[in-house]
Amino acid sequence: MKYTLLSIILLIISSCTPAKEPLRMGVITDTHYLSEQLMSNGPALDGYISASGKNVKYIPAVLDKVVDDYLQNNIHILLVCGDITNDGEKQSHLDFLKKIKPLQDNGTRVFVIPGNHDINMPVASGYKGDKRLPVPTVSPDEFAGIYKECGYGDALKRDDNSLSYVADLSHNTWLLAIDAARYKEYTTGSITAGRISPETEKWILDVLKEAKEKRIEVIGMMHWGLTEHIMYQSMIFKDYLVDDWKRLANLFADNSMKAMFTGHFHSNDITAFKSDNGNTIYDIETGTLAAYPFSYRYVDLDQEGMSIETKNVTAVPENPKLAEEDKQRMLELSTKLAKGKLGKFGYSLPDETSALFANVLGQIFVRHAYGDEVIDGALVDSINKLSKSMDSPIDINEIELDFPPADNNLRIIF
Asked: Which of 151, 219, 377, 381 has the least CB density, counted as fewest CB within 10 Å?
């Protein structure tokens, strides 16, 4: 009777114990930060912005706003999912660290992973006046040294074959930061595609096996997408998915990884991938801070899953119409790029039809960049015009703009 009574008391006490506070994380990616020491207004900078789609002129001010917001909301962790710098400039890496130092001084732990624009970049440049000026880049060892207080210096585990590492986020949660960049192969420029080597894949599986044995939850971080976020992405934009993505997504899901934070495609999108064995992993792709819609995330991680909130920078002191202007710029650029893609795929279309097709694709991309995309009236009108100009009509009901779940604000249960 005493044992039963004691058990009941303990049960009541444990049920009244407050739940542990969620781990509050911030997530940014594709900052493409160009040091203010490496740029000044002029034809060189304006020409680069126009051609690249990266509004590097305003990135320092955008990053300041994001850091200030994170400081006000006391995040515990900041994840930076690659393409930290514009083109691997050493000065940009050093100055990026200065930008986020107030967060570290406030107690935020920062974790980074390289993208395809961060290391061994042959085209690392500054833009001043009418000149593009070559500047020093960084080696893999220099990258790890610069970011020793952003994951590399106190990692639980380091991969011998890449800049991948494991860090503890809490007593029962690990961060698996995966380096899939191919900077060892660079000659004249970066390689957009990403690949996990067989050696690093084995290391990852050993980490996941150990975590499972210790009942530790694992979330991942990688620059490249782990699964498709739009229709036909693996055919049209395959370089924005990690090589052999479907096999790896199955492998990670079946080895109990719950989520992968990614970037690279400059879009704000979340996709749930279900493995052949019925296990689910979420690819949480965050948009760029270098262009519309200037997205960043809050993630509250708890024992049951995570709650995700997305914010966007719409204005900076230097430009109160930043988002509005950049949305139009991105529409024009993505329409132009879409027209080029159509030509590369060998479509022989009349000029009018090609222009209409490119316009539809451009509108879709801008909506995808923001997330939670829908087929609104403007897009319906554009699709109908395209349909009339083609031999075969387009069934709008067959167009799947957004894979589930929601992209911007949602609750995920593991």
From this structure: 377
3-state secondary structure 103-137: HHHCCCEEEECCCCCCCCCCCCEEEECCEEEECCC
Lookup result for tokens 């199955």: 250
Mean pLDDT of the chain: 92
Topology, domain 22-316: Purple Acid Phosphatase; chain A, domain 2 (3.60.21)
Instruction: Find out whether 357 and 325 touch, Cβ atoms under 8 Å.
Output: no
What's the token pair of residue 296?
């960043």
By the 8 A CB rule, do 177 and 165 touch? yes
Give the residue extent of every domain in the chain. Answer: 22-316, 322-395
Residue 270 CA neighbour count, 13 Å, CB half: 25
Give tens-digit pLDDT for 325-380: 999 999 998 898 888 877 776 667 788 888 888 898 899 999 999 999 988 899 98
pLDDT tens by residue, 275-284:
999 999 999 9
